């Protein structure tokens, strides 16, 4: 199933991590297992921030690693493993997001419920005290809730930039878009978040207690 | 040119622009209050975004199929909508229902295409039997009895035949065993008799040998005893003779000593009388 390949290592500093990837590419199962152990937490947190749902995040993370195992034989350059893995994960996220969207269009609720963002913001206005500050856990939950108001293509870039530490060049490569598009989507994503906070009368200065 | 694009602002916010661009953007921010406010708000937003927690998660166990990888987590697995505790809840519910059913004596049945669910002891329904039904029942009862009788006779006959076969077999077996036993017994008796005869012969031989040994021993012993006694008597007579001689010698010596003492006493008496004649007795008076 796996193709055995030889690689030219361009960066000796990454030799050890790359060796693991090379072993996995060459079909060594223990290397695949090690990669799962090393990357699972990060991929899970990426998908969790994307969906703000533990079960869904676990499911998508697992699907991502199953895809990784199936396709790692086709990985050409071990140094691009991280980007490659996130591309798989983000593709699964988008796929699930589209599936949910289709399901929503067909659901009865969508005919009578107002726009979700407005509804959430309305709910937020009634629930949150503008002067209120939050504990770290509450703030974390609020931030994830806000992130999930963003369109998927903006949300994924905010997550990749803020929490996964990718450079714009890498994000562009993962999502197969231009760097400027990545920057632009991030700008609108951040602006959307600011507006969501404003609509809830929540001041960024007061959020942290 | 003070116009700063959204892309440039993002590059500056995340420190991914070159020095020249950075200086240009800094200058633009310092000159444009709206831009500065926007920039500060974005920085503040980033500060808040950094507060989102990283979730701790248990890594799944990894297993490999023929061409597949299987990841198993403590939570929900892909494709399944149920978690462990939900299955546990269902199992507990089923167990509770079964217990309730057991104690309430619930029963389910399907009769003539209809499903029946009942609780407790079944109710007895008295039915009026029609004459036809009774007649039919009597006929069936008679038929059953007949069949049972036939079956009983047939079974009894078969049983008797089997028993007689067993008897015959047992008798044959007993006969052969008895014959075998008698043979064994005769052999044992014969062996025992032979053995007794051998023992008797051996005992007689032993007795004769003992007797001979005893007689020879007695003979030897008597001669030796006689010789010994003679020797002893001789030695004893010699000893008596010696003792008598010694005693006689001692008596002679004694008599001689008495004679010498008598002579000495006579001499001393004579001397005493002679001294009394020469020297009269003086009293010691004052």
Can you give a write-up of this model?
The complex is a heterodimer of chains A (209) and B (286). Chain A is mainly α. Chain A has helices at residues 15-25, 29-51, 54-71, 81-106, 109-112, 116-127, 136-147, 152-162, 168-175, 179-199. Helix content of chain A is 70%, strand content 0%. Chain A starts with 14 loop residues before the first helix and ends in a 10-residue tail after the last helix. Residues 1-13, 108-117 and 119-126 of chain A have low confidence and may be disordered. With 286 residues, chain B is mostly helical. Chain B has five helices and four strands. In chain B, the strands form two sheets. Chain B has a two-stranded antiparallel sheet with strand order 1-2. In chain B, strands 3-4 form a two-stranded antiparallel ribbon. Classes of the chains: A mainly alpha (209), B mainly alpha (286). Chains A and B meet through helix 2, helix 3, helix 7, helix 8 and helix 10 of A and helix 1 and helix 3 of B.
Largest sheet of chain A: none
- Helix and strand content put the structural class of chain B at mainly alpha
Bulk shape of chain A:
elongated
How many beta strands in the DSSP annotation of chain A? 0
Q: Uncertain regions of chain A: pLDDT < 50 for 5+ in a row? A: 1-13, 108-117, 119-126
**Distinct helical segment count of chain B:** 5
Please give the count of helices of chain A. Answer: 10
Q: How many whole angstroms does the radius of gyration of chain B measure? A: 74 Å
Give, in order, the helices and strands of chain B. Answer: HHHEEHEEH
Adjacency order of strands in the biggest sheet of chain B: 1-2
What is the straight-line distance between the termini of chain B? Answer: 197 Å
List the helices and strands and how they pair.
The complex is a heterodimer of chains A (209) and B (286).
Chain A: H1 15-25, H2 29-51, H3 54-71, H4 81-106, H5 109-112, H6 116-127, H7 136-147, H8 152-162, H9 168-175, H10 179-199
Helix pairs in contact in A: 1-2, 2-3, 2-4, 3-4, 4-9, 8-10, 9-10
Chain B: H1 6-13, H2 19-31, H3 33-49, E1 61-64, E2 69-72, H4 84-103, E3 107-111, E4 114-118, H5 131-278
Antiparallel strand pairs in B: 1-2, 3-4
Helix pairs in contact in B: 2-3
């Amino acid at each position: 199933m796996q193709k055995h390949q030889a690689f030219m290592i361009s960066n000796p500093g990454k030799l050890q991590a790359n060796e693991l990837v090379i072993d996995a590419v060459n079909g060594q199962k223990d290397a695949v297992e090690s990669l799962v152990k090393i990357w699972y937490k990060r991929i899970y947190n990426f998908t969790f921030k994307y969906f703000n749902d533990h079960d869904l995040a676990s499911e998508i993370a697992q699907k991502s690693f199953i895809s990784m195992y199936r396709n790692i034989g086709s990985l050409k350059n071990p140094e691009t493993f991280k980007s490659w893995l996130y591309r798989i994960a983000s593709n699964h996220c988008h796929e699930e997001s589209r599936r949910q969207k289709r399901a929503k269009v067909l659901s009865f609720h969508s005919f009578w419920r107002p726009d979700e963002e407005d509804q959430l913001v309305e709910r937020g206005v009634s629930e949150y005290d503008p002067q209120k500050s939050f504990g770290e856990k509450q703030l974390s939950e609020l931030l994830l809730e806000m992130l999930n108001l963003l369109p998927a293509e903006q949300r994924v870039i905010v997550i990749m930039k803020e929490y996964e530490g990718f450079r714009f060049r890498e994000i562009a490569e993962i999502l197969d878009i231009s760097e400027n598009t990545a920057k632009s989507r991030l700008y609108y994503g951040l602006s959307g978040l600011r507006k969501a906070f404003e609509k809830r009368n929540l001041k960024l200065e007061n959020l942290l207690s | 040119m003070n116009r700063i694009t959204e892309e440039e602002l993002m590059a500056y916010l995340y420190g991914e622009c070159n020095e020249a661009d950075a200086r240009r953007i800094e200058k633009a921010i310092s000159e444009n209050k709206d831009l500065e406010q926007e920039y500060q708000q974005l920085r503040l937003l980033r500060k808040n975004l950094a507060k989102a927690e990283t979730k701790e998660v248990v890594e799944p166990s990894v297993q490999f199929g023929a061409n597949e990888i299987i990841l198993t987590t403590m939570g929900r697995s892909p494709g399944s909508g149920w978690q462990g505790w939900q299955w546990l809840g269902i199992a507990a519910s089923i167990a509770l229902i079964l217990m309730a059913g057991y104690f309430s004596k619930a029963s389910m049945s399907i009769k003539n295409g209809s499903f029946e669910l009942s609780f407790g002891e079944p109710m007895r329904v008295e039915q009026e039997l029609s004459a036809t039904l009774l007649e039919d029942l009597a006929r069936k009862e008679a038929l059953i009895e007949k069949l049972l009788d036939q079956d009983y006779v047939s079974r009894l006959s078969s049983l008797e035949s089997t028993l007689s076969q067993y008897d015959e077999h047992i008798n044959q077996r007993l006969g052969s065993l008895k014959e075998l036993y008698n043979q064994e017994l005769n052999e044992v008796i014969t062996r025992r008799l032979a053995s007794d005869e051998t023992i008797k012969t051996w005992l007689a031989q032993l007795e004769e040998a003992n007797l001979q040994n005893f007689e020879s021993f007695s003979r030897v012993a008597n001669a030796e005893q006689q010789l010994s006694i003679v020797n002893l008597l001789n030695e004893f007579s010699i000893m008596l003779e010696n003792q008598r001689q010694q005693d006689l010698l001692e008596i002679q010596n004694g008599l001689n000593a008495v004679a010498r003492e008598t002579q000495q006493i006579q001499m001393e008496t004579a001397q005493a009388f002679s001294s009394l004649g020469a020297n009269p007795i003086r009293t010691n008076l004052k």
